[in-house]
Amino acid sequence: SIGDENIYIWENGEDLTIINLGIDNFSYYAIYLKETFIATSMNDNTIRIYDFITKINLKTFYGHTQPVIKLEFVFSLNVLLSLSKNSLKLWNIKENISDSILINEIMFSTP
To answer: Are 21 and 50 in contact (CB under 8 A)?
Structure first.
């Protein structure tokens, strides 16, 4: 859930984990369970990858011109999908997160 600086992870109606990254200007998030990564979409149209244990910003992705409204990790492909009102972007997620880059994008027009 989002509404304060905390990210609440729920399972079967129980609050399992509360992650506080010390940021309050994010809209959406996705958690990468293979590692301790959490992706957040920020109000400045960037996507930031944090280590949710150390709370360190590991990588910032630039490229969206509209707010990101959905983030989703695809574990089997080691990618992060990000969706805004005018584009869908595919970012590879490398073991060394700083090597991760944009690998594909689809642009579409909005009315």
So the answer is: yes
